[in-house]
Design a protein that fits this description.
9 strands, alpha+beta, Jelly Rolls, three-stranded antiparallel sheet, homodimer, Arc Repressor Mutant, subunit A, 8 helices, 2 domains, six-stranded antiparallel sheet, 231 residues, DNA-binding
Chain lengths: 231, 231
DNA sequence: CGCGGCTTTGATGTTCATCAAGTAAAGTGG
DNA sequence: CCACTTTACTTGATGAACATCAAAGCCGCG
């Protein structure tokens, strides 16, 4: 069960500048009404596919995944999200039910802002509305882009792509802790768990990467980028 | 070369009610500034990937496709769009360049509305802004949904899926004219042209569909839906 | 300590892209 | 309008890429 945290006021939140910069203190006070902050531990479910959307969700700390289930078959990860990534904007303005489940990959803190209140703020503040539009547009574009990058490549290229992505865009380091299990990687890039492992091992044998459990170090980034292009 | 059409005023446009219902006549007059309407014939290119985004595009008549190119390899169709489908909202608020090309599949009429003017209208009219948010959210969701439906299925399931989609969601008829060439179908659902043809022929042999060139008639929709679920 | 979940490797068969080759249809230029 | 070229469509054969099955080691947890 997620813990409910002491809710700090939005106008003092460290994330205010990311989205709520152009809101007045009064508008922020409105957003605070019904606002809740909850802590989720690894593997806990935040929302379940099919539940009604009542809040705009914002990830303050941690790492979450969006998962789509599909008639008894495997789960597919649509996207993963870190703080600063406005994944919560997906669907909220066009659907009344969640089209996917959200769960925590690492311990996470999520902020729940009442959706009706948010919509009112948008109606009353066009400049803020435009910012929300930009965020929504970006997050959707990124997901569509990512899915095309993945699905048009073959397996080696897919693995290479996410390794480069984690190193360059998430951790800014050639050495990092891979936050996903092998099974989750498979669900993210549409392949079997066995082949994820097989190809990682192959990259290790070829001395492209070093692996120690979930610790990854990229030894030959050039080779990985070549695999991205031609795999 | 696309013809430039006599531009009719937005406040008299038949499509006004779809998006611009809540705008005043004055706001509509603003949107008319720099507005252009152009006619494109089948296979003409509307915008090219990489070009700067200066306008919001709206399809008034016809059928277009969004195409992503990718280093000398094949083209991939991200999505196709008919009028009423606000495909033009993809990317416009988060990118300054088109991330894809747009071209006409059938003869089409497109309306070009100055993007800066549109943004101003959004800033000044929060209710309108919320409507735009809903459209953007819907179109992005639909594309993400579609791509997941396609990419998780195997070939028979993919073909079955788009046949059912055209019959039930586009033409509302079990008999319809397939607007895409076999090659375009292949580019849309990520498979080889040969296999598109092979599987269509197979469905014909199994008396699931009747084919006459681009005329398709679905004879056994139940079987197609079963293939959607288990293919 | 034993059970279930995650990881790893090998072997096997299926699905699919690709190559090749031929026919039909649709533009193109004289 | 006809010969010519190109583009779309079609079928079969082949091999590569990949999922699936099977079996075993590993680790955390009750």
């Amino acid at each position: 069960m997620p813990e409910i945290l002491n809710t700090s006021a939005c106008n003092k939140c460290a994330f205010r500048s990311l989205l709520f910069e152009n809101l007045t203190d009064d508008e922020l006070i409105d957003l605070n009404v019904n606002k809740v902050e909850k802590k989720y531990y690894k593997k806990e479910i935040v929302v379940e596919q099919g539940e009604p959307i009542k809040e705009f969700l914002y990830l303050k700390e941690g790492l979450i995944k969006l998962v789509k289930k599909d008639g008894m078959k495997k789960e597919h990860i649509i996207s993963i999200a870190r703080p600063l990534n406005f994944i919560g904007f997906l669907s909220v303005f066009s659907n009344d039910k969640y089209q996917y489940s959200i769960s925590a990959i690492e311990d996470s803190v999520m902020c729940f802002i009442d959706l009706e209140v948010l919509k009112n703020t948008i109606r009353n503040n066009g400049v803020f509305a435009l910012e929300v539009l930009e965020k929504i547009s970006k997050i959707s574009d990124d997901i569509i882009q990512f899915r095309m990058m993945i699905d048009r490549r073959q397996l080696r290229g897919r693995i290479a792509y996410i390794l480069v992505m984690f190193a360059k865009q998430v951790y800014f380091n050639s050495k990092f802790h891979l936050p996903l299990s092998r099974k989750e990687i498979a669900e993210l890039i549409d392949m079997s768990t066995e082949n994820v492992i097989r190809i990682l091992s192959e990259f290790r044998r070829d001395e492209i990467i070093r692996i120690d459990g979930s610790q990854i170090e990229i030894l030959n980034i050039g080779q990985l980028e070549r695999l991205c292009r031609f795999g």
